[in-house]
Amino acid sequence: MTEHKNVLGTPLEVCSLDPLTGFTRDGSCKVTEEDIGIHGVCVEVSDEFLEFSKRQGNDLSTPSPLYGFAGLKHGDRWCLCAPRWREALDHGVAPPVNLRATHEIALNYAPLDELLKHAMEDEHH
Questions:
Q1: Please, what's the b/e burial string for 48-76 (b: 16 or more CB within 10 A of its CB; e: otherwise)?
Q2: Is the full-model pTM beyond 0.90?
Q3: Which of 21, 51, 58, 124 is most buried, by the most CB atoms less than 10 A from its CB?
């Protein structure tokens, strides 16, 4: 089994178990070959970001019971698609990132210094 690493080069940590997140719905933002959306960035969503995402055509705040999705609210942690985080960054609404739970593939979409600028408060060293 491949060990998934985070953007800091250490083992990938869990992003969220409540709500249960990740492409594989195991709480981790690991990226597998099947994950064409690259759900590798562990973020803490804000109302501002959720509104932006909805305007971009990806409504993350409305429940979708068919998929067992309760809808996200401000403060929830979620594995976000790396290209969507980059898009939010470009529009000035990038949500805070949990670096230890963000898959290293995110570095293909945003340089580490940008991710560091958006690190969650508890991750500033």
A1: ebbebbeeeeeebbeeeeeeeeeebeeeb
A2: yes
A3: 21
Tell me: pLDDT of 125 over 50.
Answer: no
- Residue 9 CA to residue 59 CA, distance in Å, equals 31
Contacts of residue 111, Cβ cutoff 8 Å, sequence gap at least 6: none
DSSP state of 77: E
DSSP string, 39-50: --EEEE--HHHH
Cis bond upstream, residue 19 (ω within 30) = yes
Other C-beta atoms within 10 Å of 46: how many? 18
CATH class of 1-125: alpha beta
Q: How far is CA 62 from CA 51, 53, 69, 89, 99, in A?
A: 11, 11, 8, 22, 26
How far, in Å, CA of 10 to CA of 120, rounded? Answer: 17
* Spatial CA neighbour of 14 closest among 25, 123, 121: 25
